[in-house]
Amino acid sequence: MRVETRLRSNLHAAAADARDAEALGYDGLVSTEIKHDPFFPLVLAAEHTSTITLTTGVAIAFPRSPMITATIAWDLQRHSNGRFRLGIGPQVKGHNERRFSVPWSPPAPRLREYVLALRAIWDCWAGGGPLDFEGDHYRFNLMPPVFRPEPIDHPRIPVYISAVGPVMCRVAGEFCDGLRTHSLCSAKYLSDVILPNVEEGARAADRSLDDINITAGGFTILGDSDDEIRRGKQDVARRFAFYASTCTYQAVLDVHGWGGLTKQLHDLSVQDRWDDMPALITDDMLETFALIGSADDIAPQLLDRYATTCSTVVLELPHTTSADNARARRLIDQLHAA
Q1: CA angle, 290 as apex, 13 and 61 as ends, to 5°?
Q2: Any alpha helices (H) in the chain, and if so which ranges?
Q3: Which residues, 6 or more positions from 222, have their beta carbon under 8 angstroms from its beta carbon?
Q4: What are the beta bridge partners of residue 215?
Q5: Does residue 324 register a pLDDT over 90?
Q6: Which of 250, 251, 252, 271 is nearest to 261 (CA)?
Q7: C-alpha to C-alpha distance for 211 and 188, rounded to whole angstroms
Q8: Can you name the residues that pair with 55 across neighbouring β-strands?
Q9: Are 38 and 10 in contact (CB under 8 A)?
């Protein structure tokens, strides 16, 4: 099992964080797009590492033209000597329209076309042929030599998408190299909804489920004492409540009989009562969606939930002390041996 960890968005810390993660034995680094750009930290990580993979997990697709994303990915693939993996996702309607000011349309067919456009652009740059892509959302047919990037040694850049709903999962199975699950994803939702739909998409493209890298992990509440666990639960409850207030994730809660929680949380969010939302997250919910315990407890939980369904897991572990590092190494070694 591959093990990834998240890279802090702090550019001053990115190089050191990347070196440390590689030294600890992590297989991959993931850079997220929350408050900061997800690509910049990976430039620094690429310079200061040699083997670890570098992934955006995920970059928001629709505010960026596929041509812009293709160019950034091409440059990072060259800079990292083939270690870059492009992870993209659609975000939800409200953020596209109100935070990024881009028009909204059904996300699955649009993201499908986005992935195909990326591949058409990269094929043009790799092979030197004409660029001729025509879709419902994107059209690319101009690539003069002066604007064509030089070929690179690893032009087949892996593309991962984030997916929650069945249609997007089928897009991942049919057209993508991998799928990155959201933190608010349980083992049951993964096995009951995500995997069957990924497999259906894969069959449509004469592929198998084994051809798609499934990355999961969810929340981690790590602690060696009751007090550490308590503080971890408080932090995760806040994040859980934020995500669960969005209607996109109601389907995930529905499979556990908790779908009504979404409206309760959403109503509190529109009243700007964010501090009241975590109180609605129960211990049962946290135990279903989070890994909880000491480092020695986490590995068995991960393997029990994901050993037969995922090839990669994401861990959020502290790395501030020598004891933290020893704990992380031990956990990574256990997962590698699985």
Answers
A1: 55
A2: 11-24, 40-47, 66-79, 93-94, 107-127, 166-175, 187-189, 195-204, 226-244, 250-254, 260-270, 283-289, 295-306, 322-337
A3: 228, 232, 291, 293, 294, 295, 298, 316, 317, 318
A4: 180, 312
A5: no
A6: 250
A7: 21
A8: 30, 85
A9: no
CA–CA dist 87, 79 (Å, integer): 17
**For residue 256, what are the contacts with CB-CB under 8 A and spacing of at least 6?**
186, 188, 285, 288
H helix runs in 128-185, sequence order: 166-175
Cα angle for residues 299, 300, 303 (degrees, 5° grid): 85
Radius of gyration of the chain (CA): 20
Query: Which amino acid is located at 125 in the chain?
Result: W
Q: What is the DSSP letter of 296?
A: H
Distance in angstroms (rounded) separating the CA atoms of residues 313 and 217: 5
139-140 and 133-134 strand pairing: antiparallel
The model scores a pTM over 0.90: yes
- Distance, CA of 160 to CA of 111 (rounded, Å): 11
Alpha helices in 194-306 (DSSP H): 195-204, 226-244, 250-254, 260-270, 283-289, 295-306
Query: How much is the pLDDT for 294?
Result: 87
Question: Using one digit for the tens of pLDDT, what is the confidence trace for 103-120?
Answer: 999 999 999 999 999 999
